[in-house]
User: What shape does this take?
Amino acid sequence: MLIDVAIHDQPLQAAELRRDLPAVADCGGYVAFEGHIRNINHGKGVLRLEYETYDELAVKELRRVATEAAERFGLAFVRAYHRKGRLEIGEPAVLVQVLSRHRGEAFDGCRYVIDQLKARVPIWKKEFYDDGTSSWTQCHHDHHPHKA
Amino acid sequence: MHSTIAVRYFAVLRDASGKSSEQVQVEAGASAGQVYSMLAERYGFPLGLSEVRVAVNDEFARPDQLLKAGDTLAFIPPVSGG
Assistant: This one.
């Protein structure tokens, strides 16, 4: 199983990363998820975001999430990258790519990675609104991450 | 008897404390949760201990973990990645 996780302070190059997939001959399923910066949240206009990360622990936890997904769904490859720093509308903030033998595990495994990332990995999003205000969003919190 | 530990703050807690890290003197045998309560009072943190997770030396820990000199303690507000 191949695991590739990172926190990046430069733009995620999704097309380049698509070309950079490992060749795994017995894998027929490839699923990717990209999360992009949206210009609205809870009805407020969003101008830009800043992500703050606890790098040391975020990378460890991201690796645990990716490894769990690989073991649980039989994935041959999991890549999970997240941005930090300032991001503009439309920019990719997160990228998950998985390879598996069949499509079912690929969809499920990819979903598991992004869901667990949002619940567990120490990354914080600050939104800057078009009315001049800003706030740390707190949509997700889970002391005891659901492992199912 | 006191020990010196490093404390890291993120997101709302960094804003509230006005710093991303500092050295803090704690009583020998203090737990992570006790240190949080002390700092929450000092800085007026908007979150209670039950709303944050604790990390010691870059690994998740329980709030009742006892601290020793040189430890790095971090408080993790509700996460919002993705």
